[in-house]
Design brief:
By secondary structure, the protein is α+β, with helices and mostly antiparallel strands. The chain folds into 5 domains: about 5-100, Beta-Lactamase (2-Layer Sandwich), CATH 3.30.450; about 110-190; about 195-305, Beta-Lactamase; about 315-475, Alpha-Beta Plaits (2-Layer Sandwich); about 485-730, TIM Barrel (Alpha-Beta Barrel), CATH 3.20.20.450. It is rod-shaped, with a radius of gyration of 52 Å. The structure holds ligand C2E and calcium ion (CA) (2 copies). Ligand C2E binds next to strand 20, helix 15 and strand 24.
């Protein structure tokens, strides 16, 4: 039968599972009839390919499909190599050779030709026999032989051939339709496979590669030839956590598929991220035939994802996790703490005076400081603890693993110390502090939001306690903070409603008994709560930023009072205003004061600003700058509460200060305590050396005054001379020369 094959193009064969060819479709090879009549498939191939052909059949039987099998078809001339693809179709095997256009009618032409040839040869035979005999007997012999048997046989054969031809045509038509669909599907599948941007690997059930597509080669660098027959392992040892790959195969075995991220390796050895799908492909009977593994290279996607994650979950300035990621981590940490590892602590860190740096040195400086602060805090916490920046100057730390109270306080202390170190911002040395609130889980809150809120509350308590310290949360703190919040709104309202006024208290020169100046002290006449002392609301106003507004009110009011006094009572009147830390730090204080003086037509000497020792020492450069600007405008400065902070002579020398006010805690017992007496005497000796005037605060008794005179104080202020009072009450007590008449109600 091999000679019936010409060297020609495509062929489609339908075989049964035993490799018996049941139909041959569209071949324009001259296929003989017996071939369509159950020939063994192996016979179609030349001896060199028979073994391979059997392998192909085996593979198709076992795995349902085979691709890219090159077999030599037996033929009259040289064996013709054809590329076969095979698939199981129902209970048959469909083999498709890479087909070229074919002419199915040639099959029928061929068959008709055979039939007519046979008929013709029979006719010729009978004529020949008739011609040769010439005699009656011979003719009878011949014709009886021909007409009766041969012709009947011939007709019968002809009929059979015609019927067979019809039947074949019918079958072929039917199969052609079937296989057209299948062939289209198979080719489509193949085309899809090849043209897919995703790498596709088809393996047998032993995970041996039977096909890979072009995308696979493009992505990995491995060619099809290198892969065919190798076991596809999904990944290489060491690329994944132990058990990862096994877990994938386990899931595929259980559910039929797996999908997820899985690192791959290129031929060059480079790893790359893949989005991988592994599917098990069973045959009709449910038996596992193949695995189809497809994946895409998600390197770019990962980069995009990373970038997006950085933007969405990390603070672009400090590169620390942001609020969103922090909350997620807190939630997870709390869930884990609930399950096994026990309590955790949440630290809420707020930088003290950061706003001042930001306002005075600019945002770039502020940003620089935040970055350095972030790195310093980072260095104070364990790797396992998560640090985040919530925004502004707020940071949080989640301390895992049941930290003890002393562990937590130790970390807080470390952070505060680290933040206290000077920051070098553009060549300028800046100092700030940190206040830390601590909330514990589960004691101080079982929900993330509650825990954050309570740590925040504790942070506020730390700030109220003088900053640069840490505080544990307690429910009582919450009430405190709530009260403070209420006060803030009331201060704002009070400013609008004119509930704030200034009282004046004289500072008296000890030698001549004349009033040197009047200190303006702020009073809040609350409509419901009555008069509220400044100690009660100044720190709250300072915290909330309202102090700037309040401070401007004080300056405006003090300048107004000085003008009134100068015009109708005491032409030399000088009024001292207290300036808070935040006011001093905010840009524009000096300009504002000078502007107000100008507006009222007053000289700078009508005003004195009082700043505390600790305020100026925390940023001496800035303080010197502001005070110098004021000094140029004739405004004097006093260092308030002197002795309560730490200051060096050198620092004092740098500041343009006229007065040093000794804190009343030293004055309080100066007449009974040798120690207080010697402190004040040392201070005045030093101050006089610098050319400063000494003012003793809080003088209530004659005894104190005696000692103060002895140790060289220049002036004094206190109930002994006059309580702070309104301008209206003060006016009748003041002489035009500044002499103070003792009021009857003045003890
Ligand atoms: P300070 O600047 O040290 O003001 C002196 C305080 O001592 C005043 O308290 C005054 O009433 C009180 N005082 C005066 N003589 C005596 C005395 O003989 N014995 C005693 N025990 N106390 C005396 P006040 O008015 O309650 O002010 C408290 C603090 O509030 C002030 O301390 C100052 O730091 C702050 N403050 C007051 N007014 C303002 C203001 O307008 N702005 C700012 N930023 N702070 C202010
Ligand atoms: Ca003062
Ligand atoms: Ca004072």
């Amino acid at each position: 039968m091999s000679e019936t094959f010409a060297s020609n193009s495509g062929v489609a064969l339908v075989c049964n599972y035993d490799g018996l060819v049941t139909e041959v479709l569209w071949d324009d090879l001259e296929v003989s009839a017996p071939l369509a009549d159950q020939s063994h498939m192996a016979c179609l191939f030349d001896p060199g390919s028979v073994q391979k052909a059997l392998g192909l059949i085996m593979q198709v039987k076992e795995r349902g499909a085979a691709f890219g099998w090159e077999l030599n078809v037996a033929g009259a001339g040289n064996p013709r190599p054809l590329n076969f693809e095979a698939a199981v179709v129902g209970n048959r095997i469909l083999l498709l050779a890479s087909a070229t256009p074919h002419d199915e009618s040639r099959l029928y032409d061929g068959l008709s030709h055979v039939i007519s040839e046979q008929i013709n040869s029979l006719r010729a035979l009978s004529k020949h026999k008739a011609g040769r005999g010439k005699g009656k007997r011979a003719e009878t012999e011949l014709s009886s032989h021909f007409t009766h048997e041969m012709f009947r046989d011939m007709l019968e054969l002809n009929n059979r051939l015609v019927n067979a031809e019809r039947e074949l045509a019918r079958k072929n038509g039917e199969l052609r339709r079937l296989s057209a669909v299948l062939r289209k599907d198979l080719h489509l599948a193949h085309r899809v496979l090849q043209s897919s941007g995703e790498a596709v690997v088809v393996t047998d059930h032993d995970r041996r590669v039977v096909d890979v597509n072009q995308a696979f080669t493009a992505i990995t660098g491995f060619t099809k030839a290198e892969q065919l027959g190798t076991v596809h392992a999904l990944g290489e040892p060491g690329q994944h956590p132990v058990g990862f790959i096994d877990a994938i195969w386990d899931q595929v075995a259980r559910t039929g598929s797996w999908q997820g991220e899985c690192t791959g390796r290129r031929k060059g050895g480079e790893s790359f991220p893949r989005w991988l799908t592994v599917s098990a492909v069973p045959d009709d009977s449910g038996a596992l035939r193949h695995y189809v593994i497809n994946f895409s290279d998600i390197t770019r996607l990962k980069h995009a994802e990373e970038r997006w994650q950085r933007l969405a979950f990390y603070d672009s300035l400090t590169h620390l996790p942001n609020r969103v990621l922090f909350k997620d981590r807190l939630q997870q940490a709390m869930a884990r703490a609930r399950r096994d590892i026990g309590p955790l602590a949440l630290l809420f860190i707020d930088l003290d005076e950061f706003k001042i740096v930001n306002d005075s040195l600019g945002h770039d400086a502020g940003d620089q400081l935040l970055c350095i602060a972030a790195r310093r805090i980072e260095a104070c916490v364990r790797q396992a603890d998560s640090l985040a920046r919530l925004g502004g100057d707020e940071f949080t730390v989640i301390m895992h693993g049941s930290p003890s109270e002393s562990d937590v306080l130790h970390v807080c202390e470390k952070i505060i110390q680290a933040i206290n170190l000077p920051f070098d911002i553009g060549g300028q040395s800046v100092r700030i502090g940190a206040s830390i609130g601590i909330a514990r889980f589960p004691n101080d809150g079982s929900e993330p939001d509650t825990l954050i809120k309570n740590a925040d509350t504790a942070m506020y308590a730390a700030k109220s306690a003088g900053r640069n310290t840490s505080r544990y949360y307690s429910p009582a703190l919450g009430e405190d903070i709530a009260r403070q919040l209420k006060v803030k709104t009331q201060i704002a309202q009070g400013l609008q409603r004119g509930e704030f006024t200034l009282e004046l208290q004289p500072v008296v020169d000890l030698a001549g008994g004349l009033v040197r100046s009047l200190e303006a002290l702020l009073r809040w006449n609350h409509p419901e709560r009555g008069p509220i002392a400044p100690d009660q609301f100044i720190p709250i106003a300072e915290d909330s930023g309202l102090i700037v507004e309040l401070g401007e009110f004080v300056v405006r009011q003090a300048v107004q009072l000085a003008r009134e006094l100068r015009s109708d009572t005491w032409p030399q009147a000088r009024v001292a205003v207290n300036v808070s830390r935040r006011q001093l730090a905010a840009p524009g204080l000096a300009d504002f004061i000078v502007g107000e003086l100008d507006r009222c037509g007053l000289p700078g000497s009508a005003l004195i600003v009082e700043v505390t020792e600790s305020m100026v020492m925390s940023d001496i450069d800035h303080a010197a700058q502001v005070l110098n600007r004021l000094r140029e405008a004739g405004v004097s400065a006093a260092i308030d509460d002197f002795g309560t902070g730490y200051s060096s002579l050198n620092s004092l020398r740098r500041l343009p200060v006229e007065f040093l006010k000794i804190d009343k805690t030293f004055v309080a017992d100066v007449d009974v305590s040798r120690e207080s007496e010697s402190i004040i005497s040392a201070i005045s000796a030093m101050a006089h050396g610098l050319g400063l005037n000494i003012v003793a605060e809080g003088v209530e008794r004659q005894g104190q005054l005696d000692v103060l005179l002895q140790v060289g104080c220049d002036s004094a202020q206190g109930y002994w001379f006059a309580r702070p009072m309104s301008l209206d009450k003060l006016r009748p007590l003041l002489g035009r020369d500044g002499r103070l008449r003792k009021a009857a109600e003045n003890p």
